[in-house]
Amino acid sequence: MIQLKKTIVFILFIASFGTNAQNTFKNWPDIIRKNDADWFASAEAKNIAENVLLYQRNIGGWPKNIQMQNPLSETEKQKLTVLKSDLHEITTDNGATCQEMLFMSKMYAQVKDERYKESFLKGLNYLLEAQYNNGGWPQFYPLKKGYYTHITYNDDSMVNIMNIMKKVGEETGFFSIKPPKEIVEKAKKSFDKGIDCILKTQYKQNGVLTAWCAQHDEVSLAPANARAFELASLSGYESAKIVLLLMSVEKPSAEIITAVKSAQAWFEKTKITNLEEKRVLNDAGKIIDKKMIVTQNAAPIWARFMDLETNEPFFCDRDGIRKKSLEEIGSERRNGYSWYTDAPKEVLKKYASWAIKNGVKVSGTETSDKKKDNSITVALDGSGDFTKIQDAINTCPSFPYEKVTVFIKNGIYNEKIRIPEWNTHIALIGESKENTIISFDDNFAKINTGRNSTFFTYTILVEGDDFLASNLTIKNASGDNGQAIALSLVANRAKISNCNILGNQDTLYLSGKNAKQYFKDCYIEGTTDFIFGSATALFENCEIKSLKNSYITAASTPQDSVFGFVFKDCKLTSDAAATAVYLGRPWRIYAKTVYINCDMGKHIRPEGWENWSKPEAEKSAFYAEYNCKGEGFQPTKRVSWSHQLKKKEIANYTIENILKDSVENWYSK
């Protein structure tokens, strides 16, 4: 089962001090997926392989949920030998058989033991034998009475099998074992039959193709029930892997293209963006409760079970009675099952490139009679497409290839806005910098969620790369009441031009892994640390205004970053109340901040920089100036550990060097 928004870390303690080292692995699937090829030649791996061979039945498949790495007693080995000819409980559920075949392939790549090759080929033959004539696979083979005979997409069972058939049929070299030519041909035909079954089982609502169910009847192909709490329904989880499989087909047929397009549209239609799952854990890390919390602009999730006709999510306990919310079912099923998933996010992420590759128009770039979908207008008076900016962003396509422009007419938009990481290439363009105002009033005390409350105070949060903003005022309106972010940029290749960014403490937060950000012709004001964060950011021709005595910058530049904050041709101004302002102090000890050709008002303190009670930062931080002017530029009075750059050093501070990225000249677009 997948676990939503949870990173599962398997800690493997490998005590390999000799050939008889005690095995301490804790999870069989994780062992199989080890990337250390040499390990599969070790004595430890060979011992595990002996167990895998013992567990394999003569028919070729394996039972499920076996920790193959656990040592076996002689009595256990004898029992497994007797079971070799048993035809019960052999399955592909929970990854069984498919994962053991992968293990044998990895073993054979390092150790040419013919038993490993024979085991893999027996497993492959088992999968070929288990396939129905209509192309589907049951959960158990030989057939086990009950819902186990249904065509089973549940937990990716059929998709796992088809990926094996695809790799074998295409002779990709993924597996170290090369089947005979006649088996390769059988694998090709098996894959094609499986695709045909997938296309025939895609569910239609009022004649419109949607997605798939976890189980389909093996005769009628209709949606089917499984366990009491697994009623026939459209699946947000299983459908995702099916679509990714279809998208992997080279030169897809018209039927495959239609299936993928329809499923993508259904995923967009059924995504949930106002809920997040909250888990309560005990001291041992076990889930003791799950709750769904209403959250504004949450990352998209999908229900595991959706009504076949309405797409409405539903939930079931072991009594098989449908409920409308997770809270209505008992704790055993509520906490012991995955009811929501983010798996379709991968489909939406890859869809645009797949569509372009296969000549499919991508939503967000095709034209209509009235306008292009990649141009949206927001207006408070109702004359645009939306009256709220967030509503416009929520309709933008995921990971588009072209810029999506949201044009915002004049007005004061009292909104808290999030542009998530999948909404890349968004441009917010205001009608005018002075009169297009986006304002919200959160602050640290108001958020009150603990020590990290600052990061939730934003008026605008940008997580999507390749962001552009122009002709706007972005304001945190909470006043001088502690930390309160106006603009939070956690994105790469973000360009802000001709904008006002207004606030007090912590006005502008700049972050993101290896993020490069560019500010041009902007006005930025604040009180304490009002430009802070870890990004590499270039400010050109900007006015930086201090509202009271404090600090302009608080960089947290990573140690390996060449540049931090760079101000070029900027003007440092102040309110009358600000008469003693520092250029910066180090939020983290490797902070980097440089002022080049800047005009510094008299409010700048002679010493210029402060160490924030971190004497070690005086050696590790890099604070520098070059060719500045104004009453506040007093290079001879600066702290001894700051720098005045030489002309040959300043040659490195070009826009090309500072903002260098894999996307060339992104800052000039």
From TrEMBL:
Reaction catalysed by this enzyme: [(1->4)-alpha-D-galacturonosyl methyl ester](n) + n H2O = [(1->4)-alpha-D-galacturonosyl](n) + n methanol + n H(+)
CC terms in the record's Gene Ontology section: cell outer membrane
Name the record gives this protein: Pectinesterase
Top-tier EC class: hydrolase
Protein family (similarity comment): Belongs to the pectinesterase family.
Signal peptide as annotated in the record: 1-21
Molecular function terms from GO: lyase activity; pectinesterase activity
Hydrolase found in the keyword field: yes
Annotated catalytic residues: 529
UniProt keywords, alphabetically: Aspartyl esterase, Hydrolase, Lyase, Signal
Source organism (scientific name): Flavobacterium pectinovorum
Lineage, broadest ranks: Bacteria, Pseudomonadati, Bacteroidota, Flavobacteriia, Flavobacteriales
One matching Pfam family: Pectinesterase
Alphabetized InterPro entries for the sequence: Pectate_lyase (IPR012669), Pectin_lyas_fold (IPR012334), Pectin_lyase_fold/virulence (IPR011050), Pectinesterase_Asp_AS (IPR033131), Pectinesterase_cat (IPR000070), Pectinesterase_Tyr_AS (IPR018040)
Top-level taxon in the UniProt lineage: Bacteria
EC number: 3.1.1.11
GO biological process terms, semicolon-separated: cell wall modification; pectin catabolic process
Metabolic or biological pathway: Glycan metabolism; pectin degradation; 2-dehydro-3-deoxy-D-gluconate from pectin: step 1/5
Domain Pectinesterase catalytic: from-to ranges: 376-660
